[in-house]
Amino acid sequence: MSSVTATPQSADTRGLAGQTIGDTSICSVNQTQLIYRGYEIADLAAHATFEEVAFLLLVGHKPSPQERAEFDAMLRSERSIPASVTEAITKIATDTPEAHPMSVLRTAVSLLSHADPECEDNSAEAEYRKSCRLLAKIPTCIGTHQRALDGNAPVEPDSSLSHAGNLLWCMTGIQPGEAATKVMDVSLILYAEHDFNASTFTGRVIASTNSDMHSAVCGAIGALKGNLHGGANEAAMDMLADIMRDTSGGDMTVDAWMQRAFDEKRKLMGFGHRVYKNGDHRAGILREWGLKYAQKENADAQQWFDLGDQVQAIMLEQKNIHPNVDFPCGMTYYAMGIPVPQYTPIFVASRITGWCAHIMEQHANNRIIRPLAQYTGPELQNWSD
Question: What range defines the domain where residue 241 resides?
């Protein structure tokens, strides 16, 4: 890690705002571009598959055809999870169906660590293999939980399907169509990496203590669970559902609903970004693919995109705030019939690639992350006074 870049004392640095706290060769985020190891996100979304992007992030370069085939084969062979993990996930779903899916996934990853023979090995070679195993198994964990919630037995992963297709299969037990698989694949590419965001930074902090990859990933999942980070896509869809409910009777318009939200200073999820002040590059890409899916596969879902466009226009006109990728994600996944509580776990099925790449990068050139704090408590006092 490089040294911290100083900022003026008068600046609001809460949340490390505006401060550069390290170097990375994995991702670049700026106002005009999102770049994964030299490749811009729109280029990747249009021309790459998620598996190719995963290899790019984890290994560091675009895969050759042979590397792609070998990587695919490795992932497909590692999708099954131990019976003990299946049983634990199913028991949680049965006994406490209200448990947050992100908490269940965090537990599943922790349990997987005990079954991984290389859990405590932080060598580069072992960490790459652990990254691949986590990438392959997380969709199975997500699907096992959702099927248990639905009262169904888990299905075996399908090695004939892509990562995106297998994720949908594990959740539903239904062979996904080409359109659904493509939209999911694009969404996974868009969510795969985003430099030192809260969950990635959490993972790097844990890794910097020389802790293991599974522990770092569990911490990252905990950070992503919050609705100010990964949970924003769930909250965005919940917000749209509130608007649809309150305006469907004709007594309230969308404009009136939004004005009431502004007056109440309600936080509207899916809008704004710490870095992107002029709009999130990923949002338009996912909206386009989600709308295409709705028009082709689920015409009733187009109403959500129409509503979303109204809300987006009002936010831009009244507040000059653009949507982030979580806003169209909510509508897109909803159109695909994915239960809202599983939106953020699906985020994990993608972002595990970025997390593992950063954990490996941290371990390769490590210094424990230990920033300073400015004390604002009471002056020194004498206990006996």
Answer: 232-335
Host H or E run for residue 28: strand 27-29
**Cα gap 381→385, rounded to integer Å:** 8
The answer to whether residue 100 is catalytic is no
Annotated catalytic residue within 72, 185, 212, 326? 326
Report whether 29 contacts 194 (CB < 8 A): yes
Does 372 or 176 have the greater pLDDT score?
176
The pTM score is 0.91
Return d(Cα 212, Cα 262) in angstroms, integer: 45
Q: Is 229 a catalytic residue?
A: yes
Is 95 in the same domain as 215?
yes
Cβ(137)–Cβ(79) under 8 Å? Answer: yes
Catalytic: 326? yes
CATH number of the domain encompassing residue 249: 1.10.230.10
**CB-based contacts of 342, cutoff 8 Å, min separation 6:** 101, 142, 145, 146, 171
Active-site entry in 100, 121, 158, 229: 229
Containing 190, the helix (H) or strand (E) segment is: helix 178-191
164 and 301: one domain? no
According to the model, what pLDDT value does residue 18 have? 72
145, 194, 273, 363: the catalytic one is 273
Can you tell me the mean pLDDT for 136-155? 98
* Residue 8 in domain: no
Residues 353, 135: contact at Cβ < 8 Å? yes
> In terms of domains, do 199 and 308 share one?
no
**For residue 10, what pLDDT band results from cuts at 50, 70 and 90?**
very low
CB 356 within 8 A of CB 134: yes
DSSP string, 268-321: -TTB--SS-SS--HHHHHHHHHHHHHHHHH-GGGHHHHHHHHHHHHHHHHHH--
How many domains does the chain divide into?
Answer: 2
All residues at 6 or more sequence positions from 8 whose CB lies less than 8 Å from its CB, including other chains: none
Same-domain status, 185 and 277? no
- DSSP assigned state of 375: -
Phi, psi of 239 (to 5 degrees): -65, -45
Q: Has residue 6 been placed in a domain?
A: no
